[in-house]
Structures are given as structure tokens and as C-alpha cells.
Amino acid sequence: MLKGKNILIGITGGIAAYKACTLIRLFKKAGANVRVVLTPNALNFVTKLTLQSLSQNEVYIEQFEIDEYKPEHIALTEADIFVIAPASANTISKMANGICDNLLLSTACAFQKPKLIAPAMNTGMWNNPLVQENLAKLKNIGYNIIEPADGFLACGTNGVGRMREPEEIFDETVKILSTNLKLKNKKILITAGGTKEKIDPVRFITNSSSGKMGLALASAAKDMGAEVTLVSTFKVDGFNNIVTETAQEMEKAVKEKMGEQDCVIMAAAVSDYRVKNYSEQKIKKGDSEGLTLELVKNPDILQEISMQNPQLLVVGFCAESENLIENAKKKIQKKGCDYIIANDISRKDIGFNSNENEVYIVDKNLDITKIEKDTKQNIARKILEAIFE
Predict the structure, then answer these.
(1) Which is catalytic among the residues 21, 100, 109, 155?
(2) How far apart are CA 151 and CA 162, in angstroms?
(3) Could you tell me the CA-to-CA distances from 259 to 11, 141, 187, 255 in Å, in that order?
(4) Overall pTM surpassing 0.85 (yes/no)
(5) Fold observed for domain 6-181
(6) Rounded to an integer, what distance in angstroms lies between the CA atom of residue 10 and that of residue 108?
(7) Which of 95, 111, 127, 275 is deepest in the core (most CB within 10 A)?
(8) Is 21 considered catalytic here?
(9) pLDDT tens across 119-147, in order?
(10) By CB neighbour count within 10 A (0-12 exposed, 13-18 middle, 19+ buried), where does 312 fall?
(11) What residues contact residue 210 under an 8 Å CB cut-off, 6+ apart?
């Protein structure tokens, strides 16, 4: 599974650093090419010579120790995954706040592929609200975290904070890299954001969608090897991105591109109605006590592409404030798509503008799969795994 893979291991200052030696051996035995980057404090627990001997590669420590034409923190990002084990409270907090005062941190900041961190620290440090807040920030931007175990710690106490065993970290790495292969050679179009329907040059009708779920799906699909086209109501770098504003613009963009796709995921919140008579000039308030707008229905993009392209895998979203499952079942039957992802917008802790979500996947047979509350990035990965299985 790991033959030919390039794995970058980061080691921070902590007694669990000695376990990284076993982890390197496991990766090498599985056929991976391993490179190691350390924080200066890690050298208090493991030696550079030991790590060089085990990895059979140069070990990197100093920020500006440049032997190649590229700065080391950029050259090191060419790995398939960055595994930081152990990850100290200090390193976790610095990563979460964009601090780059050593080579390992600079590399983590520049690294665009999957990152897995295995925290190790005293129980009091692990339970510190600031450390937990920083871990949550890393989760929300896509870091994979294998949480520490409960056990005997180097400080002589029992509690949570013991780094997971090298074999567990190895298995988690294999799982992440295996997931990345699942969508290789797949072409997926994903919509994101809330459309805007203009009233006049300065006013419009819209909804509360932030586009975070659609963006998380696009990011997860890309990480899993797919070729992603993102049709969104905002500009996003790093994707084949088509920016639209109105429902009709989004419809046009989706229909132009869907013939090239294996799957279309309609995560955008498309406005159901638009203003019938757009005013070319700003509407003046005047003396009137009210303003009446006549609205007309927008095209139902999800229904149209589902009905017109039976060979295409089509996934829709359903945001409901009541009778979530019942309404989701009605919607999938009406729209004719393959899956509906339903989420409850009445809850304040998930959904619109939140970094977390909890969803139900409803298929054509009206079978239901629940994905428990998690970060939108993790929810996105689980949705993709479910619909492509």
C-alpha cells in the first residue's frame, strides 16, 4: 500500500519522540521513502544520526540550511503526507496560529497535502481549553488528528496524553492515503454558496449559505484524487473555479460542464425565486410606506440535470427546519437524483455559517445513513466515501 509513497515525518520535543524511530521503520518496511524534519528541541530526545540511519535520508532541522536550489520548507512539501509524531502542545498551538519560527512549522504551513498529527503531552496540557481550541482550529482546516490514549505518562501520572502507538499511527496513515486514491480519475462538479437575485444595481435577494460545505466537499474530493470543477458564488484559488452570481448563471455553468463529469454535487443554496422586473436604476424610497416585488420561479437545476442525465451520478442537498427526513424523502422522489444530503438548519450548532455539520444521506431506495456531528471537512470526506462506495 505504501510502496513508492513519500512520507515526511515531523518530530517535536517530547519524551514520545523515541517512538518515531519505530514509526520510521514501519514505513520503510512497507516500501515508503521517508524523510524526517525535527524541531531543535526534539534533539533532546532522539539523535540526528539515529534518524538518518533509520530513514536512510538526510534529516532536516535548521530553517535556512539549504543544500538544494529550493528552500527546504518548500522542497519538503513534495511528500504525499506529513505525519507529525509526537506533536507537542507548543507546536500544535503555533501551527494553529500560523507561526513559522522553525523549519517544521514553516513546512507545515506550506504543506498542501494530507497532514496527520499525533499529540503527546501531560493531561493538564491536553485538557487546557486553549490547546483544545487550537486542535479544533486545525481540524476545521483539514488536519487529521489521532488523539492520545489514556495511560501512564512520563510525568508519573495516569491520564489522557499518551501518544498513540506507532502501529496505530501507521494504520491511520495507510487509511488516509488509501482514501486519497478512491476518486482518482473521477471528474466531479460541485456547486457552493448562496445565489443572489438582483432587485436593482445595489440590492438583491439571497440566503444564509456560507458555501463552507460545498468548499469542504471540493477540497475533500481533490484530496481524494478527483479532478474538481467548482461552480461557486465566490472566488476560490486552487480549483478549476467558475464564479457565478444568480441561479440562471449557475444553471448555465453547470449545464455547460456536466457532460464532462462523472458526478455532480449540488451543494449550493440556489434561490427558488428571482425578481421578475429588474430595475436598471436604483429604486428610490420616496414617500411610499412599502414596496411590492413580483417574484418568478428560478429553474430547478437539480431536477433538470437529474432527469436529463440518467447516466450521471447526481447528489443534491436538502436544508430543512422541520420534518427533516420526511421532506428529504419527498425531495429525492421529486428531483430524481441519486442521493439527497439532508441537514437540519433549525440547529444553531451546525449548518449555515458553522464549521460543523450533521447530515443524513438518503438514497433512491429511501435508505438512510446518518453521519454524526463533525467538522465539515470530515463530513465531506464521509459523504464522498459513502456515495462512491
Answers:
(1) 155
(2) 6
(3) 47, 32, 10, 7
(4) no
(5) Rossmann fold (3.40.50)
(6) 9
(7) 95
(8) no
(9) 999 899 999 999 999 999 998 788 999 99
(10) middle
(11) 193, 194, 352, 353
